Give the backbone structure.
Amino acid sequence: MSDNGARIFKPGEIVPESGIYECECGQHHRYSTDVRGHRFPPPHEGCTGTGWKLVTVAHD
């Protein structure tokens, strides 16, 4: 879990809801998906993060 209580999703886990996710490394690496059920990618090359947290929920 992150400081604000948001769940951190690990690479390879299934995306639970559409939206914009940000790596938890603090460098603002983003991953956007409009399809629930895809799997999270690994962090960007050179990134020190280990997972993704939801920052903006996509509208239906």
Observations:
- The chain has a mean pLDDT of 86.
- The chain has no helices and three strands.
- The CA atoms of residues 22 and 30 lie 4 Å apart.
- Strands lie at 19-23, 30-33, 52-57.
